[in-house]
Design goal:
Layout: E1 8-10, E2 16-19, H1 33-40, H2 62-74, E3 79-84, H3 91-101, E4 106-112, H4 114-121, H5 130-138, E5 145-149, H6 155-161, E6 165-169, H7 180-185, E7 189-193, H8 201-213
Parallel strand pairs: 3-4, 3-6, 4-5, 6-7
Antiparallel strand pairs: 1-2
């Protein structure tokens, strides 16, 4: 209502769309998704955001994710970040990512490009290309955004996003975790998660190769 007590229709950005009148009126207004999200957070918990996108839209560049997570954090949510190659995603990966997501309200995963994986793992890796690996991770409910990165380390992603929680496997000493000092200096924390070492991409590839070499029983 206005100061005189008359009814009005107001858009999320405060624009008056229609004041009180006797005649019928058709009112249209283009809703800005950012303005809508800014208002929605008043009515539900930060971590209880509805799922508005299809999975493939979770795969974005750094600038886009930085803008989206700034909004999420203004709404009171905490941001977690982790990274890896995630080639041949298996149960160990899924358990790790689920645990990472439980540390915050939003999980961003950085994954190495194909060239970066080859430099780390050898010429015969990755088995799956970067677009396929990103798409598989995006289908996991515990993952909110995926960013491909070609740098030797994810430091640029970490210093740009400055997550509340930086997650890495427990086999990494905190002193050797890239971005740990920057995140802690900004008031965040580092969480080291025990990985299921009986499940790994390398072990899976070795098993496939061994199976391929095994003689075929023809009787």
């Amino acid at each position: 209502m206005d100061m005189a007590g008359h009814s009005m229709i107001v858009a999320p950005d405060g624009t008056v769309l229609q004041s009180a009148a006797m005649e019928a009126a058709v009112i249209t207004s283009k809703l800005d998704s950012t303005a809508v999200d800014e208002q929605r957070h008043r009515f539900y918990p930060a971590g209880d955001r509805s799922w508005l996108t299809t999975d493939h839209e979770k795969v974005q560049d750094l600038d886009t994710v930085a803008a989206k997570t700034r909004l999420i954090r203004r709404q009171g949510s905490r941001l977690a970040f982790t990274n890896g190659c995630f080639d041949l995603v298996h149960a160990g990966h899924v358990s790790y990512l689920e645990a990472a997501r439980r540390t915050a309200d939003c999980l961003v995963v950085g994954i190495n490009t194909d060239a970066s994986v080859r430099s780390l793992k050898g010429a015969d890796r990755p088995v799956n290309n970067e677009q396929d690996r990103a798409r598989v991770l995006a289908a996991l409910g515990c993952v909110d955004y995926v960013i491909l990165f070609a740098d030797p380390t994810p430091l640029r992603l970490i210093t740009t996003l400055l997550p509340d929680v930086l997650v890495k496997g427990a086999d990494w000493p905190e002193a050797e975790i890239v971005g740990a000092s920057e995140v802690k200096a900004a008031g965040g924390r580092v969480v080291r998660i025990v990985f299921q070492h009986d499940r790994s991409t390398t072990a899976l590839i070795d098993k496939i190769r061994a199976s391929a070499r095994a003689p075929i029983n023809t009787f």
